[in-house]
TrEMBL record:
Coiled coil spans: none
Transcription recorded as keyword: no
Keyword entries, A-Z: Membrane, Transmembrane, Transmembrane helix
PANTHER family: DUF1405 DOMAIN-CONTAINING PROTEIN, HYPOTHETICAL MEMBRANE SPANNING PROTEIN
Keyword Cell membrane: no
InterPro entries, alphabetized: DUF1405
Transmembrane segments: 26-45, 65-84, 96-116, 136-153, 165-185, 191-211
Name of this chain's protein: DUF1405 domain-containing protein
Top-level taxon: Archaea
Length: 230
């Protein structure tokens, strides 16, 4: 019997169309990402330092993972007005390009960052006790799920050169805030120069991947051409 060809990207497109283009399943997805955002906020509320130690407008820079989840939730929520039409026909414009690009960059950066940070000092995290099951396996696996979310965003979004440059600038500002002022995500060890250097490198890697993953939205004044329909 002849083996059928399997096109992974085509299957993902079908999955995105079915689940993110369907009202009930899209709402479930938004509830899950919104709930995960609240879990992340709770972590930073009870951490040391905590959100209470910072001015409100700095919360997004301190709560890196909740920020990524908030951006993903907002990005996916832009599909709600598009229900009843193919996900590939979702509206694209300059503000949405910035939102989708930021969501992708934050998801990729902090999905990978968490895996790296925990495995730089596995002796402090790896284990099979009740606490270790969450502190290592739970946190690592849930944050690797960020990469799945990031993979979905370019299926309905686009980017621009300005959005990519803005995402890189903001990611580097976040790095300065984290390591210049000591507000990196709470760890069981001091981050040091190695993790700081890796984090800065991840800012560039995440933006480079965004440039590769997204179609480019061509803008001239207030007009645009949607590359997905060309």
């Amino acid at each position: 019997m002849r083996r059928r060809d399997f096109d992974f990207d085509e299957r993902v497109d079908e999955w995105v169309e079915y689940y993110l283009g369907n009202g009930p399943s899209l709402v479930v997805f938004l509830v899950l990402t919104g709930s995960a955002f609240l879990v992340g906020v709770s972590f930073y509320v009870h951490s040391d330092p905590s959100l209470s130690d910072l001015p409100t407008f700095l919360y997004p820079l301190f709560g890196d993972s909740p920020t990524a989840l908030a951006l993903l939730t907002l990005s996916a929520a832009t599909l709600l007005p598009n229900l009843g039409r193919p996900v590939s026909d979702a509206p694209v414009n300059r503000p949405l390009a910035y939102l989708h690009t930021l969501a992708f960059v934050w998801l990729v950066k902090y999905g990978i960052w968490t895996f790296v940070a925990l495995n730089l000092r596995p002796d402090l995290y790896v284990g099979f006790s009740g606490a270790a099951l969450w502190d290592y396996w739970g946190i690592m696996l849930t944050h690797l799920g960020f990469l799945v979310g990031a993979y979905l965003v370019p299926r309905y979004g686009a980017t621009t050169r300005g959005a990519l440059a803005f995402a890189l600038a903001l990611a580097l500002v976040n790095d300065v805030f984290d390591y210049g002022f000591g507000y990196y995500p709470p760890l069981k060890y001091d981050a040091g120069l190695l993790l700081a250097g890796i984090t800065v490198a991840l800012s560039f890697v995440a933006v480079a991947l965004a440039a590769r993953a997204f179609d480019r939205l061509n803008l001239t004044g207030d007009d645009y051409s949607d590359p997905r329909k060309q």
